[in-house]
Amino acid sequence: MPSDNSSGFQIFKCQKCGDCCKGYGGAFLTRKEIQVIADNIDADPRSFVAKYCQLSGDKPVLAQGPNGYCIFWDKDCKIHAVKPRACKQWPFIKSVLIDVNNWHIMAGVCPGMRTDVRDSAIAACVKKEIEKQ
Q1: What pLDDT digit, counting tens, does each position of 47-104 carry?
Q2: How far apart are CA 43 and CA 36, in angstroms?
């Protein structure tokens, strides 16, 4: 995903490290995303939720494996072509617009995120990317 601001510098370049795929509570799934991913791996949507998801409240999220990474991460994303919107948007998420410190917190585990730019430039770039989505 491009991430250039009006000055032409990039604030994010994916390093394909998978660190955004680690930890609980990441990718909430819509019914449509469940169907698309289930179709992609030849699973029934109900059995997909039971086998590959955990519940956060009453909402399904992609489950984590024993190593703490998303169950579909193994040196690369096994569902990259059909990954959920939450994964596609990373790190351009609305919580950064609420508080740009969220960018800096996320950058602590994501080597592709720049923090050596003004907060106003980060916010402007994130806003622009969200509007494109």
Answers
A1: 999 999 998 888 999 999 998 999 999 999 999 999 999 899 999 999 999 999 999 9
A2: 10
- Domain of 28, in residue numbers: 23-72
Q: 111 and 90, same structural domain?
A: yes
- Residue pair 28/84 in contact by the 8 Å Cβ criterion: yes
pTM of the shown model: 0.80
Alpha helices in 21-93 (DSSP H): 31-40, 45-52, 85-89
Tally of domains within the chain: 2
Exposed, middle or buried, 85 (CB in 10 Å: 0-12/13-18/19+)? middle
Residue 77 lies in a domain: no
- Both tokens of 130, joined, read 């969200």
